[in-house]
Design brief:
Elements (H helix, E strand, L loop, with lengths): L7 E8 L5 H17 L8 E8 L3 E5 L7 H9 L10 H11 L11 E7 L8 H9 L2 E7 L5 H7 L8 E3 L3 H13 L11 E27 L6 E26 L14 E5 L3 E5 L21 E7 L5 H19 L7 E7 L3 E5 L7 H9 L10 H11 L16 E6 L9 H9 L2 E8 L3 H8 L5 E4 L2 H5 L2 H9 L12 E8 L6 H14 L10 E8 L3 E5 L7 H8 L11 H11 L12 E8 L8 H9 L2 E8 L4 H8 L5 E4 L9 H12 L16 E5 L2 E5 L3 E2 L5 E2 L10 E2 L4 E4 L5 E4 L9
Helix pairs in contact: 1-2, 1-6, 3-4, 7-8, 9-10, 16-17, 17-18
């Protein structure tokens, strides 16, 4: 936008002396290139030439040599530092004698841009005046720590508009454009204007200062005698000196000046008239960061906020900001929820009753009025109090019962000074649904309060707290609609670490986890199939996907899983699952979600990343559950995403995470599936998707899955299969194909 377009001759006078040095000389070249961006360099508009001066002036290129902006900038980059003394006056006399080399002989305005540190070896006053008397506009640009007084002598009047600092190239280019706009250039862009503001010039000066008086020895008139005396000692010191000035710059309106992004969104300009908003979590319902979440579930919601000394004033203010952002995101005019806020330390208060506010604005004002109290952290007492007094039913009609689910969200960052387990059990016994939000420091206590790790939301750093708003919204709304997998088609394989690193006792805990997990699924050929693989250095299939068709049979088989007791290799186990478990031959069903759950202590995972990626590439999700202290980066490569990695501190805590893990698996089972991943076709058959199903293209084999070798005289053929077709064994051992039953979700 800011480009001077006029018939104009511009000559750069570039200081290449030793006082500048090679580093600052390169910065001068960079600055000259930046100034070229503010000039419309064309044969009939702006022309540019350059002279480098030190002990003597040297013409680098005349004004008629390069006639495009890119040519000029490329030539400037190739200029070599010459070195020598700073003879600025001699360079000005050269211009007085020769004029602008290659210029248009004063038929167009002439502009001289001197880039120097202003530390000339001779006087510059007379030649500078003579150059300006020839109607040449002179700009003086300081480099390094310049001597501003000399640069002001060189520059045209008013000096504030003709003296710049090369250290801020963009600012100086703006200043040059702003000054030229007032004289030779065309008018500024629409809406833009030149404004002045206070600024300062800085330089380093060497000054002499008294260090103090010290004893020294002086001679005397007497022969062979000296006498003591006090002598002044001086030292030289470099002092930063500031010169106040005014800067004139062109300011153009930006699309973000009107602050179009709401709710804390950041506006990012795109050119002159376009922008986009970077929205906080929970916003983005439109381009201006309108709330995109909504609590469509009807609940009575009470935030129980820790305001004890343990969370500190900073933490308390963070909770207030979190509450405001959450409510802005989810609270609409027609929201079916009722919200309140309670505070606790040694005592409990409910400054905002549940249902007191129905609009976000009045709620915000009440939150702003909350005060930090300090005191002890009695979380147990607070839970009992809100269980008794936090929710007061106020039905609209006397015969109408207020039966909305009651949810308490505990916000705390400090450990309780009284027991919480019994109080939390009491609150849950009164029908309250408890959700804990806090830092990782109180993870164990939050799990104790909620009774279930999936009802705890833990953040690692303060900013991460705000990123958990969508998760909190899901937790609140899941109270009345529990998740389940009973009707979801799923092929699920457990890979259990049975190595010596885990040990027999912990292996039995992992086996019990698989045992209790199967109760969340309906085991039969039409809904969920489960396979179990244990592994040490080699994998061992305990049972395949199609081995057991009932929960009771599966239960007995899990108890037979052996402990192997050697080194662990998770990579070989995943390769085994890919090639010998999740296959059509072993009961895997095309068009059904496939999940592998790895239960491990983190040992032997070094070779697992590539096989895990191979499984994912074929549509099989890898879920890693790791117990104990392990290297997170390596495990993350195996899981592929933090969403599929669960870290548990001890084997004893594994049982508390079962609901969370099952819920994540169930969420995956609801997403769309690719019928050709993994490939259902055997013997190198090619799976081809079609409308409503797929078909296998076979070579040398035949059958729906290329399972039968072509006999002599037969021709290969392919069969189309509908979605959710899968292999079933009849009592005769033959196979036939059928659709999944009607209750199975179609994709």
């Amino acid at each position: 936008v800011m480009q001077c377009s006029a018939s104009l001759d511009v000559l750069f006078l570039l200081d290449g002396s030793y006082s500048i040095g090679k580093g600052s000389f390169e910065r001068s070249k960079h600055f000259a290139g930046k100034l070229c961006d503010a000039l419309d360099i064309r044969p009939d508009r702006v022309r540019v030439g350059m002279i480098q001066f030190s002990s003597a002036p040297h013409l680098e290129f005349p004004l008629d040599s390069y006639l495009t902006k890119q040519e000029v900038k490329d030539r400037i980059k190739r200029i070599v530092f010459r070195g020598g003394s700073t003879e600025t006056g001699r360079a000005l006399k050269y211009i007085l004698r020769k004029g602008f080399p290659g210029g248009r002989n004063s038929s167009v305005p002439e502009v001289l841009i001197v880039i120097s540190d202003g530390k000339s070896q001779g006087s510059t006053t007379v030649p500078a005046v003579q150059v300006k008397e020839r109607h040449v506009t002179v700009f003086a640009v300081g480099i390094k720590f310049p001597r501003w007084e000399e640069l002001q002598v060189l520059a045209s009047e008013p000096t504030d508009q003709h003296v710049f600092f090369a250290g801020d190239a963009d600012d100086a280019a703006n200043g040059l454009y702003s000054t030229l706009t007032g004289s030779v250039c065309s008018a500024t862009a629409p809406g833009c204007k030149v404004e002045s503001h206070p600024c300062e010039r800085r330089t380093l000066e060497t000054v002499k200062e008294l260090a103090g008086n010290y004893v020294c020895w002086k001679g005397s008139k007497q022969p062979n005698a000296v006498r003591a005396s006090l002598c002044p000692f001086y030292r030289w010191k470099r002092v930063l000196i500031k010169h106040p000035s005014r800067c004139f710059r062109t300011v153009c309106p930006e699309p973000c000046d009107s602050q179009p992004c709401q709710n804390g969104g950041t506006c990012v300009p795109e050119g002159l008239d376009k922008y986009h908003c970077l929205c906080p979590v929970g916003y983005g319902g439109d381009i201006h960061c309108a709330p995109k979440l909504s609590l469509e579930c009807g609940v009575d919601l009470l935030f129980l906020m820790d305001s004890s000394a343990g969370v500190t004033l900073e933490g308390f203010l963070r909770y207030k900001a979190f509450l405001k952002r959450f409510l802005q995101a989810v609270m609409g005019q027609d929201s079916p929820m009722n919200v309140g806020v309670a505070q606790y330390d040694n005592n409990v208060r409910i400054p905002i009753e549940v249902g007191q506010h129905k609009d976000a604005f009045s709620f915000m004002k009440s939150i702003d009025a909350l005060n930090f109290s300090g005191g002890g952290t009695l979380t147990g007492r607070a839970l009992r109090y809100v269980a008794q007094h936090g929710f007061r039913s106020t039905p609209v009609f006397a015969d109408m019962q207020d039966d909305l689910p009651r949810v308490v969200v505990l916000l705390t960052d400090s450990k309780s000074q009284d027991p919480v387990a019994e109080a939390a059990k009491y609150a849950r016994g009164r029908g309250l649904f408890l959700i804990g939000v806090g830092s990782s420091f109180v993870r164990a206590e939050l799990a104790e309060v909620t009774g279930n790790p999936k009802q705890t939301i833990v953040y690692s750093d303060p900013q991460n707290l705000f990123n958990r708003i969508p998760e909190l919204q899901r937790r609140i709304c899941s109270v009345d609609s529990p998740e389940g997998c009973q009707a979801q088609s799923l092929d699920l394989a457990f890979a259990v670490d049975a190595s010596a690193g885990v040990g027999l006792e912990n292996f039995l805990r992992l086996r019990d986890f698989v045992r209790s997990s199967h109760l969340h699924f309906s085991i039969n050929r039409d809904v969920t199939q489960i396979a179990l693989v244990v592994y040490g250095s080699q994998p061992h299939t305990v049972f395949a996907l199609d081995t057991h068709t009932s929960n009771s049979a599966l239960l007995r088989a899990i108890d037979q899983a052996p402990f192997l007791g050697d080194l662990a290799s998770a990579g070989s186990a995943l390769l085994h699952i890919y090639g010998d478990v999740m296959t059509v031959q072993k009961g895997a069903r095309p068009g059904v979600h496939k999940v592998v759950v790895v239960l491990t202590n983190g040992g032997g995972m070094e070779d697992a990343a590539a096989p895990a990626q191979q499984l994912r590439d074929n549509g099989i999700l890898v879920f890693v559950v790791v117990i104990g202290d392990t290297q997170r980066d390596m495990l993350l490569r195996v899981a592929g995403s933090p969403n599929y990695l669960v870290h548990i501190s001890s084997y004893e805590d594994l049982q508390y995470y079962q609901d969370l893990i099952i819920e994540r698996i169930c969420e995956e089972a609801k997403s769309p599936v690719n019928l050709c991943k993994p490939n259902p076709c055997m013997n190198q058959g090619v799976c081809i998707l079609g409308p409503g199903g797929y078909r296998c293209e076979c070579r040398g084999w035949e059958g729906p899955h290329c399972e039968s070798r072509v006999l002599r005289g037969d021709s290969p053929r392919s069969a189309a299969l509908p979605p959710h077709s899968h292999v079933q064994r009849s009592s005769t051992g033959l196979r036939h194909f059928s659709r999944a039953p009607r209750h199975t979700k179609r994709h």
